[in-house]
Write a structure and sequence with these properties.
The structure is a single chain. α8 packs across α9 (150-165). The protein is elongated, with a radius of gyration of 32 Å. With 166 residues, the protein is mainly α. Among the domains are: 18-64, no CATH class; 103-165. The protein contains 9 helices and no strands. Its main location: nucleus. This is Nucleolar protein 16. It comes from Ameiurus melas.
């Protein structure tokens, strides 16, 4: 048997080395999720330096001054205070509750309320209780429905009252 010929390293003339280098740098650079920090970030500075200029801390080391050495160090100036201000404004905005119930759960709760009202023990014995939920589990499901679809629940209860009174 003869010796196996090795493939020599050849230069690829079709590859743009500058573009490949940029692509590699961007691939390994972290993606900053916070829009305010991303906008104020300077890629020429270190992460610690960027965070100090924004008035934020990078890691927990040196956060609390424990020794007297901390008094000797100069206090870092906040160059970009608008970042923290914008983040606080965004955090103070109210968030809309987006939880919803499935149509199966809504039908299940409608059936249970229509048949038993607020008697959760009787609901637990119902034949439509396929998953054999306990009274507490059924109460949680009803409460979830009330919280997610408050107007719909109020209209449903009002229609039930109208049917029973007539």
């Amino acid at each position: 048997m003869g010796k196996k010929a090795s493939k020599r390293n050849t230069f690829n003339y079709n590859a743009d080395r500058k573009k490949l280098q940029k692509k590699m740098i961007n691939k390994y650079r972290p993606r900053i999720e916070c829009a305010q920090i991303r906008k104020a970030w300077d890629i020429k500075k270190s992460a610690k330096r960027n965070m100090q200029e924004m008035g934020l801390t990078f890691g927990t080391k040196g956060l609390l001054p424990i020794t007297s050495k901390a008094k000797d160090e100069p206090v870092a100036q906040v160059v970009k205070p608008y970042v923290v201000r914008e983040m606080e404004e965004e955090a103070s905005l109210p968030r809309k509750d987006t939880t919803t119930c499935s149509t199966d759960l809504i039908e299940y709760v409608h059936h249970m309320i229509r048949e038993y009202g607020e008697d959760y023990k009787a609901m637990a014995r119902d034949e439509k209780n396929y998953y054999q939920d306990t009274p507490k589990q059924i109460k949680r499901k009803v409460d979830l429905y009330k919280r997610c679809h408050a107007e719909e629940h109020a209209a449903f209860v009002a229609s039930l009252r109208a049917q029973t009174s007539s």
